[in-house]
Amino acid sequence: MAVPVFCNSCLCEPRTPTPRFCLTSCGHVFCEVCLQKGKKDECLVCRRACRTLVLSKETSPDIQSLFMPIDVLSKKYSKEISQVSEFQEKYRKRLLKYHKQKIAKLEESLKKVTQQIQQLQCMKPPENTTPLPFSSTSRNPSVPSRKQNVYSSYSLHSSRPSTSEMMEAMEIDPVPSPMRKV
Predict the structure, then answer these.
(1) What CATH code would you report for 1-68?
(2) Domain ranges (residues) in the chain
(3) Helix H segments across the chain?
(4) What pTM does this model have?
């Protein structure tokens, strides 16, 4: 059974010959007779400015649903909700599948790069046997380097000195070069 429609002013219900009923934008229903008695564009109940809409079979489904029985309305919206839910579930699964494929590709790339790094490390000669060119030699063999002992022991422990250590290892030639202008 549908929700009974009645005028919120005179409380009459639709009958034959039935006056037309209107719904106001403030949510009240009036028969055509009562609407003509009131002020134009003003609700007879709450006295607010309002618009009116004639209720008929051509009225939009959203407005008609206000007067449908709850069980009919529940079935209608239940079906719509099920369709939306199925759509969203399929959409979510497609997105999940895409991300799983992307992760698998990234893991495969990571595996390949890791293998390449391991292969390069196997081909690399041991670093602790290679002396650094500046750590044990001097430009002037007769003048021993003050830092020579420190850096020769350093080269046994580390493969590459830091920039500051390289600066300390540089020797300054006290004799001017013939190419330099003094």
Answers:
(1) 3.30.40
(2) 1-68, 69-123
(3) 32-37, 61-64, 70-123, 148-157, 163-169
(4) 0.39
